[in-house]
Amino acid sequence: MSTVDKSGFFEKVYKVAAQIPEGRVTSYGAIAKYLGAAKSARMVGWAMNASKNREDVPAHRVVNRNGMLTGKSHFGGSNAMQQLLEAEGVKIREMKVLDFDSVFWDPMTQLEEPY
DNA sequence: TCGTTGACATTTC
DNA sequence: CGAAATGCCAACG
């Protein structure tokens, strides 16, 4: 495969995030768990931090376990993240995802085969 | 090598 | 719900 980042960890996160369907959201822990690093959910966030340089990574579709748009703070301090999600059909209330359970996209459940 | 930080998760109070 | 504490791991200085 194309070697973009030898770390691999970031690339995996980017791939999973890039596979998130529109109108859906996932959590850092879910991605981390899918990558086999459930305990390193923070690393997913860290990877996302670098992903900001990557347009292929819809970081706005990634929220924390509580469905809260924690990333907004790093997204530019604006409500753009919320607007993007709402534009895709995701209801946002007070920076939190409504029906999070309904819009929640679990890579482990949706993606049968692993990387 | 060490210490600090962090877009998390979980438990406890 | 909120705040505090703990764990976990990688990046940064």
Q: Per CATH, which architecture?
A: Orthogonal Bundle
Assembly state: single chain
The total strand number stands at 4
The proportion of residues in beta strands is: 5-15%
CATH superfamily: Winged helix-like DNA-binding domain superfamily/Winged helix DNA-binding domain
Radius of gyration: 13 Å
Biggest beta sheet attributes: 2 strands, parallel
Widest β-sheet, arrangement of strands: 1-2
CATH hierarchy class name: Mainly Alpha
The overall pLDDT average reads 85
Helix content: 40-55%
Give a verbal description of the structure.
One of its GO terms (biological process) is methylation. It comes from Zunongwangia profunda. GO terms for molecular function: methyltransferase activity. Pfam families: DNA_binding_1 (PF01035). This protein is mainly alpha-helical and about 120 residues long. The protein has a single domain, classed as Winged helix-like DNA-binding domain superfamily/Winged helix DNA-binding domain (Arc Repressor Mutant, subunit A), CATH 1.10.10. About 40% of the residues lie in helices and about 5% in strands. It has seven helices and four strands, in the order αβααβααββαα. The strands form two sheets. Strands 1-2 form a two-stranded parallel sheet. The protein has a two-stranded antiparallel sheet with strand order 3-4. A hairpin with a 2-residue loop joins strand 3 and strand 4. It is globular, with a radius of gyration of 13 Å. It starts with 8 loop residues before the first helix and ends in a 5-residue tail after the last helix. The chain binds a DNA duplex (13 and 13 nucleotides) through helix 2, helix 3, strand 2 and helix 4.
